[in-house]
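Q: Structure tokens for this one, please.
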Amino acid sequence: MTGSTQRKFAFVTVAAIMLSAHATPASADFFGLGWRSASTAAQDCFDAVNKDAELQPIIERLSLLKTPSLSQLSDVSLPADSDVALVQKLSDKRAPCRAKMLAATDEYHPALSSTYEVRFFEQDLVYVELLKRRITIGDATRRLQESYLAFSNRYNRYSEKMEARQRQQVVEQLQELADGFTSGKYSGTPPPNSPGGQTQYTCRWIGPTLYCDPY
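A: Here is the predicted structure, written as tokens:
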């Protein structure tokens, strides 16, 4: 292992420990165990509903799990009695899953809660129209797909923002660590390749990799 590689991994390890102690819960946990556990439990609930054999006819007809085809988007038929019954069952069975997801966002990422609330509200508006037979299957499919794409865009923007924030926190903590060794603030072994702890370091991201170099 080269000296530069050793320096990179040593600094990242110590900075990760510092981040766990000082970062705020929301910003530190977007990719952490708490959020992953809570959001996975909610997603597992949704997955179980999506695999429910009784609901497959309406899930497939509205193309809820895949990109709709042209024939599905142009379906001008109104929902049949069987469709209406299954839409109601789908809504009822997904309700506990929604509650789990909102509880997870409220605890770990309150700023993300509105993204899910809007998504669920838009779904409900379509479901109501289907229950009252006021829109065609094709219109419902289109509106649900548009809602999903808008939701995905909002979620991805939030995720990218949180990732960028975490990356910046790592840089700042590593820089603080390097400055601390240089100034004598931290006791113990100085950073690799810095005899006496007097070499100064600057840290930066290059692609997905963080580098800390002497200058």
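A few notes: The two ends are 21 Å apart (CA to CA). The chain has a mean pLDDT of 79.
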